[in-house]
Specification:
Helix content: 40-55%
Mean pLDDT: 93
Largest sheet: 4 strands, antiparallel
Number of strands: 4
Distance between the termini: 15 Å
Strand content: 15-25%
Structural class: alpha+beta
Strand order of the largest sheet: 1-2-3-4
Order of helices and strands: HHHEEEEH
Length: 102
C-alpha cells in the first residue's frame, strides 16, 4: 500500500507510474464508482489470466487491463505516442492509494 508521503516518489518511478497517477487525477478524479469498477476488473484479471482484457477510456487516457500488464495510452498531445505499460500490482497499489484519497 502506498502512503501519502510516498505518492510523489511513486509517481516518479517510471513513465507508467506517472501516467497512472495522471489518469487517476484527470479521468477518475473522485468517481468512486469508476474506481471500484477498475478494482473489480483488476481483481478479475488477476484471478483469471484467460479473462478478456478490460478497456476504459476517459477524457485524457485510454486504459487496457491485460493479464500481464496495464497499458496506458495518452489521448491528447503526440498522436504517435506509444502506450506505456505498468504492472498489475503497481496499478492496484495506485488504485488503493487513490481510494484512500476520495
Amino acid at each position: 500500500m502506498i502512503h501519502e508521503h510516498e505518492w510523489q516518489q511513486w509517481q516518479q518511478q517510471s513513465a507508467g507510474h506517472a501516467a497512472t497517477a495522471a489518469f487517476l487525477l484527470l479521468d477518475v478524479q473522485t468517481n468512486l464508482t469508476m474506481l471500484e469498477t477498475l478494482q473489480a476488473a483488476l481483481d478479475k484479471i488477476k484471478e483469471n489470466p484467460d479473462a478478456e482484457p478490460y478497456v476504459i477510456s476517459g477524457n485524457s487516457y485510454f486504459i487496457q487491463l491485460q493479464p500481464q500488464q496495464v497499458l496506458i495510452e495518452e489521448l491528447y498531445g503526440d498522436d504517435y505516442a506509444e502506450p506505456i505499460a505498468i504492472s498489475l500490482d503497481d496499478f492496484g497499489d495506485a488504485l488503493g492509494y487513490w481510494h484512500t484519497q476520495i
